[in-house]
Amino acid sequence: MEKDLTPLFSVVMPAYNVAATLERAVKSVQAQTFTDWEIVIADDRSTDATSQIASKLAENDSRIRYFREKANSGACYRPRKNAILASKGTFAIGLDADDEIADGYLQTLADRIQATGADTVLTCQKAISEDGQEFPTQSVYTEVFIQRTGPGRDFVKETLSGWRIAFRGAVKKEVYEAAFAEGDEPDKPFADEVLSRRLLIKSRLTAFAATDYIYHMNPESITHVIKPTFFYFLTANRRLMEITLQEFGRESEEFSLACRQFFYSVYDALKALFRMPYGKNRDEAESMIREAYGSDDYLTARRHASGKLKTLSFAGWGLMKTAYRFHVKE
Q1: What is the value of pTM for the model shown?
Q2: In DSSP terms, which residues pair with 12 in a beta bridge?
Q3: What is the dihedral of CA 253, 113, 21, 67, to 10 degrees?
Q4: Domains by residue range for the chain, with CATH
């Protein structure tokens, strides 16, 4: 009898210049007691030794497949999507090449899938700093949700104005395909965060599992280095306003939370701007923030905000920026 070539899990791994961490991520999968998996590594045209390491890993383990993108996309969205489309598993599990999964992670997910019949099972996220200590503000524990199941759209609000659940875990490939069929997000940083909410909306049944995705805080990652691409979170947050308005309506809690998230993210962006040296990059970043501040979306979002920042927001751009700089220093 021919062996079943459809594993339960495809671990999809976008990779860019991760020569220092790729093997650690892969080994965390190879060390699992649950063995019905494959790994698909999509290299976004790395310029370090990532390609050689990935090729060697694939050569030594037939469950690992590797391909190299035709061009660098500058973000995780495109290589992750291509890895998912190339995958053979029933469920896709996202694993960044600088992170890892805890012992028993795959078995716990498999058990929850069998017990609940869910097409999405989300786990906890344990964040680790460079010195190996847990970073509590980036860790997300979902124990309060462990006994809950329901349509994924019921949990979208738990991802807005703060992550009360982590979008880590297993999602049925067909859920991804349904989301992709409706259109792509742009190849920009933070596009994955928009996609995660779209996947929840598409999920027929979402459940939770008590196991840890281990997120290594990488100060060199595209979402931490402060340069113009860092500020694409403003675009992502505006997109979340659009999605929640369309899916849940103007009077919904989801739309209100998305509005608050965008409003306060403008001030998060200003904090980051103040740390940038003067020059072309800072000018480009300031232009992005100013455009967000002057948008109709910002006016809509302000209606859902409160406190000092809402009061400050009624000042013109220049006065508001100066006043906020002093507010940050206080």
Answers
A1: 0.93
A2: 40, 94
A3: -100
A4: 9-216 (3.90.550.10), 228-329 (no CATH)
